[in-house]
Amino acid sequence: MKTKLLLPLTLLGALLLTGCGQTGPLPTFGKAITPEWIQADFDGVSGNEYIATSNLQDVVFNARGEVIGWYVKGYAGTPYIKRRADGTFDFSALQNQKGIVNMVAGRKAFALSGEGLAPAQPAEASVPSGLDTDLKTNRQTAVFRYTQNGVTVTKNVTLHPRNFKIDLQTRVEGGPERVSLLFPGLGKADNPRVQAAARGAQPAAVQGSGTLNVENIQYAALQENPSQVAHALILRPQGNETVNVRLTGGAQGLITADVPATSNLEIYGGKNELIHLYQSGYTELPGLFKPNFFGQISLLIVKLMETLYKFIGNWGLVLVALTLLLRLVMWPLMQTQGRTTARMQVMQPKIKEIQDRYKDRRDMESQRAMQTEMQQLYRDHNFNPAGCLSNFLPFPVLIALWSTIRNFEFDSGFLWLPDLAIPDPFYVLALLYLIVNIGQLYVMTRKNPDMFRQQAMIYLIFLYFALTFPAGVTIYIILSTLIGIVQQVIINRQVERETAGLGQTVQKAPAGGARKGKDAPAQTIVATTKGGKKGKVIDAPKQD
């Protein structure tokens, strides 16, 4: 039976399709990043840049508070920036950009233009103040000031290390009453979706490489097609201020926002993925994100997690409770699946006997006789081959659950784990993951050592993924697998008791009448059933 080999391979493919195959550098296993501000020469031009680094992204500002590098991480915790032994920093990974997406793609975000203000012209910029990181409140703050042609600009920037949101407060003094803010993004996208929704209206999108003006917006967005590796840039006015936008489509997607001299915008720059958008409060905006079937399941799971957290108050214990609840709900289905697996294991030796008996017989009569014996064996053991399909029924929930926990941003650790959103820094979970999966494989293939050896090698491949899984994902898999092992052991004992009296004997024709060749009489196969009673009599094909 190849089903057991197919399952891990199918799961591996599902994980790859849902985002394990990320672009960019592979993560340094277990190395979480402590959010901080780095002051260093990033672009090689005289003067420092200011880099806000965290597990989710690295954002590079120049002295005017313009974003000149916006690097969203495919794997949370990937250290794009290396600290050398002498205390200096190595930015080569970001500067070479091999597989790393710079959302602004050589352009500048948060750049101001208007009367007296021009991003390409020189300005007198002061050293930013208020460079601070407060992990308890999930904030990285900075204040940028510069003067250009007698106009003074102050930008208060607040990043949130555990999500992709940035608060941008801008004040222009001695200049025009309204200015333009530039939001280029999604540097790798050939043709992102560019749209905006006016307050109280449905969204309008740019067609092709054209332009579109939308007044008094509730949001404007640049978006790639949703996936684990897709990106989005979304801006949303705060308060009642009027913000108008000009949308530019095509390869160089751009949002130009017309804002008051004093403005307050919330900006999302990160993954165009349901859970991150949900946690940031964007999924209720019209036309921004339409969940598919798996997304609908993910939303139910994340809302259940939030409900459990209200009562439990610890995300690690929430995952434990979620695992128990989901296994309880799926228990009847897993019971059916487990009984199918157990019966197949009991039958394996007898299936092999039948296959060996006919392995040199390829004629139609022999094949029909073998199928007849196999069908009788299935009936005797109350086994339905179609029951193997039940192995795949939980997959939609498992895939949605994987995506939910993987993308959920937890605000705490658990036990020895500093952060449930990144891999275990001590590799304990990866080791437990391998042990419990090998244990489960043994329980499911204990009567077929060859199959166990074959599939054990496959699970070694999964060890790599366990090293990169967020700790929250690995906790769920370990607990769920342990429960599955206990359930399967119970089922195995039940099925073995039920099938203990089932057997099969072969009664050959009397010796006196035994002849070889085509004229030899057929062998008589008598299948015995539970209690030793004779069952159906099958005439096997003659042997040459």
Which key features would you list for this structure?
544 residues, 10-stranded antiparallel beta sheet, 5-stranded antiparallel beta sheet, 11 helices
Low-confidence stretches: 1-27, 504-544
Using the alpha-carbon principal axes, give the shape: elongated
Radius of gyration: 32 Å
Strand content range: 15-25%
Biggest sheet descriptor: 10 strands, antiparallel
- Overall number of strands: 24
Average pLDDT over all residues: 77
Span between termini: 29 Å
What is the helical fraction, as a range of percent?
25-40%
Instruction: Quickly count the helices.
Output: 11
Coarse structural class:
alpha+beta
Signal peptide: 1-23
Pfam families: 60KD_IMP (PF02096)
InterPro entries: YidC/ALB3/OXA1/COX18, YidC/Oxa/ALB_C, YidC_ALB_C
Family: Belongs to the OXA1/ALB3/YidC family.
Account of the protein in words:
The chain is about 35% helix and about 25% strand. It has about 550 residues and is an alpha+beta fold. Strands 8, 9, 10, 11, 12, 14, 15, 17, 18 and 21 form a ten-stranded antiparallel sheet that branches. It has a five-stranded antiparallel sheet with strand order 7-13-20-19-16, with no helix packed on it. Strand 5 and strand 6 (about 90) form a beta hairpin.
